[in-house]
């Protein structure tokens, strides 16, 4: 009998997102086949058709991955179904450190190594993922190029690791989310759940955001993140993303209390936080 495999989309082989995907799989029941996409946008587009996906959402040095934030709103049927954080250690990859003039990588990785790059006076070039950067450097055979990426990607494309742990701050971590349109079954029952919402305030008036936050404070609900993004309608207008610890049976009533003060409010997911 043929076993049915669920598809799980992520960034290319050798990316940190691929490693996060493999870590998610250790928690999941069922059969999965990893499918590789060139960009975060492609992951969302595929998941909007079927299957699941893994994308980065926030980094401890550089903050939000704004594209992921925006796509969670754009693809309204795609929800967050799980989350995990992973240590990120970047490597300088290429031929000869002394000959490098330009560094290629994903914008998040370039930003996490900004000081290091500046110290060496290198110029930068952004590509869709760290493994695409390593591939580009390998295929160019150009000693003036260096890439920032994972050890796996250096191995995959047969390049040397010229220096390890080049991130500007130790303790560099990225949070990844598992996305999908349906629920998943976890091997063990996770004990911590979070909820993510996005909303737009009805009125731009003193205390508008305060009144939203008050609803959480009065119910003793712990917020874990608050972020604003441009509404894209007009300069100076924003939408807000809030993550909070799942209040269990109080969730419905908490969300109800916010409805009156917002033009829209969507739940992006109620999901387990995996270790
Ligand atoms: O390009 C990769 O390797 C990715 O998985 C993307 C990504 C990101 O966008 O944050 C993932 C983790 C690191 O923070 C750097 C890059």
Structural features, described:
The protein has helices spanning 16-25, 40-49, 66-74, 107-112, 114-120, 130-140, 151-156, 208-218, 251-259; strands at residues 6-10, 32-36, 52-59, 63-64, 79-87, 91-94, 102-105, 123-126, 145-149, 160-163, 173-180, 193-201, 223-230, 238-245, 262-274. The longest helix has 11 residues, at 130-140. Strand 13 and strand 14 form a beta hairpin. The chain is 29% helix and 35% strand. It is of the alpha/beta class. The model has no long low-confidence stretch (mean pLDDT 95). The chain is built from 9 helices and 15 strands. It has 3 domains: 6-88 and 172-180, 3-Layer(aba) Sandwich (D-Maltodextrin-Binding Protein, domain 2), CATH 3.40.190.10; 91-163, 3-Layer(aba) Sandwich (D-Maltodextrin-Binding Protein, domain 2), CATH 3.40.190.10; 193-274, ACT domain (Alpha-Beta Plaits), CATH 3.30.70.260. Strands 1, 2, 3, 4, 5, 11, 12, 13, 14 and 15 form a 10-stranded mixed sheet that branches. Strands 8-7-9-6-10 form a 5-stranded mixed sheet. It starts with 5 loop residues before the first strand and ends with a strand. It binds prephenic acid (PRE).
